[in-house]
Write a structure and sequence with these properties.
membrane; 3-stranded mixed sheet; transmembrane helix; G-protein coupled receptor; Rhopdopsin 7-helix transmembrane proteins; mainly alpha
Length: about 325
């Protein structure tokens, strides 16, 4: 078939979520609930960091960036997923799919950079506490965050342009519940080897370098904590790092399983959709709770805001 003369598909059909008997309505209701929890949990962190000056520190600044990413990441595909379910038409226009693909990976790649910055912040705070304030100034934090967002913006831009230029003539059915690069390339015509190589390089460079930096940072952090003379200080230091390590395990574990794979044409994406749910829906909901459930500063900030709205609430919370 001559792919150069074919008529390009104007829309794609998304296969959708994995089937669980007759539980489709329950599954989509659960996704809607997860999305609301994601918006509320991450939105609360952003609002708290803006309103409470005690939270205007590097760690919370990076955490608020992570919350913005989680909101953007889920918003890039969940509303469309829910609309498709309500309308019973699992279609998405060609350029809508390419746009969704780009923003999905923009937020995804930026998340790894922000996670690396959180590791850097914890390393400096624990290993160099006396110099921490002079190193992690507000200006430095802002430049690091901008660099992370620009890194996410440019790292996958060229690949998306190449994917948009491919012919899609044989089928328009994408075996996923959103436009992911693997399922999209699987139905594409033409030569996709260059795109695959670029994607693999970006995945390895971004994910592996981020993970390596995080692991090295925590080796130094743990070594420093173990040398602290006070048990109370050790517990406090461990508690500030434990939440980040939990998020790191969830994030990297699921992404390794989904994206470090052989060639796209030989891949089956049916089994990967369940893992994608963990990475794309569950993790963004858990992040704000994992980071704040044992964080006294955030809980105190929330308590103060609630007291302003509801006088006398402190007596009920005591």
């Amino acid at each position: 078939m001559n792919l150069t003369n074919c008529t390009r598909a104007v829309e794609f059909i998304l296969v959708g979520l994995p089937k669980v008997g007759r539980m489709d309505s329950v599954m989509h209701a659960g996704i809607f609930l997860l999305y609301l929890l994601c918006l509320m949990g991450n939105g609360l962190i952003i609002v708290m960091v803006i309103l409470d000056r005690h939270l205007q520190k590097p760690m919370y600044f990076f955490l608020s960036n992570l919350s913005c990413i989680d909101i953007g990441h889920t918003t890039s595909f969940i509303p469309k997923l829910l609309v498709n379910y309500v309308s019973a038409k699992n279609s998405i226009c060609f350029y809508c799919c390419i746009t969704q693909l780009y923003f999905y990976f923009l937020f995804g790649v930026t998340e790894f950079f922000i996670m690396t910055l959180i590791s850097l912040d914890r390393y400096l705070a624990i290993c160099y506490p006396l110099r921490y304030g002079t190193i992690m100034t507000s200006g430095v934090c802002l430049k690091l965050a901008i660099g992370a967002w620009l890194g996410g913006f440019f790292s996958i831009l060229y690949q998306i342009v190449m994917i948009a230029d491919l012919p899609y003539c044989t089928t328009n059915i994408i075996n996923h519940f959103y436009c992911d690069v693997g399922p999209v390339l699987k139905i594409a015509g033409g030569d996709i080897q260059v795109i695959e190589v670029l994607g693999f390089l970006v995945t390895v460079i971004v994910i592996m370098s981020s993970l390596l930096f995080t692991l090295i940072s925590y080796l130094f952090i743990i070594s420093t904590i173990l040398r602290m003379p006070s048990t109370i200080r050790q517990q406090r230091a461990f508690s500030t790092c434990a939440s980040h390590l939990v998020v790191v395990c969830i994030l990297y574990g699921s992404v390794f399983f989904v994206y470090l794979r052989p060639t796209v044409k030989n891949s089956s994406f049916s089994r990967l959709k369940s893992v994608s749910i963990l990475y794309t829906m569950v993790a963004p909901v858990l992040n704000p709770f994992i980071y704040t459930i044992r964080n006294n500063e955030v809980k105190e900030a929330v308590r103060k805001v609630l007291e302003r709205k509801t006088p006398g609430l402190s007596n009920l919370m005591a």
